[in-house]
Amino acid sequence: MEQAENIQTRPKSRFWEIDAARGIAIIMMVTYHLLFDLVYFGVADIAITSGFWRAFALTCACTFVFLVGLSLHISRERAIQKGVKGSALVQKFLMRGAFILALGCGITLVTWYVIGGGYILFGILHLIGLSICLAPLFFPLQKKNLIAGVIVLALGLVVTGTVGPLWLAWLGIHPAGFYSVDYEPLIPWFGLVLLGLGAGAYLYPKGRPLRQIRQPCPPVTNLLATAGRHSLLIYIIHQPVLILLMVVAGIIPPETFGIF
Asked: What long-range pairs does 119-122 form, CB within 8 A, spacing at least 24?
């Protein structure tokens, strides 16, 4: 979710393997959300909340969140090399995180209006935005973030299922019967961000790869990397596009939506 740059003309500004991994995750996400839409609108009967497709969705989300941490480490190292330190460095990540968090709040409003019950209260964008804001507190840990990540994930075993007021939903505590179509609370999901930060310190010290990875099948990996570089845009627009295509194709009747 960084600013898009050309992977061919700026080879040192991006790492194809990270962009390609993010691209695979975004394709998985679009695939899963297409199936979700088909089930939600009663077009198909697919068990998307259990078995293979549940594991598929978790793999996609975990990949995204882990790569957030990995990318944050690289971004921080590059900022330091450019002389951005102290409060300026913190402000850089606070501003970026606040922007993503604001987009998440926009998704909350849209889903509350469109689907009502099950609207996205604290989804993937909320998680990423808040994680970016919190990242400066954990940057100094470097490789020890792997330990911190395991601790947060373990804490999730305690928090998950805890009943409490709705305003604590961002932490993983919520009322009994709470349901959201996209829910990734800070605990345990921030643990994956910390694992990414720690892994980044190992694999990309000083923001440079520990070992260069040869790019296989450039036509395919370049396509995946392009999708990965535009993952935020794809995330924002993919659901309206999917639904519009299904309406145009006659899969979903237009009268399903009062806004059509």
From this structure: 119/180, 119/181, 120/180, 120/181, 120/182, 120/183, 121/166, 121/169, 121/170, 121/180, 121/183, 122/169, 122/170, 122/180, 122/183, 122/184, 122/185
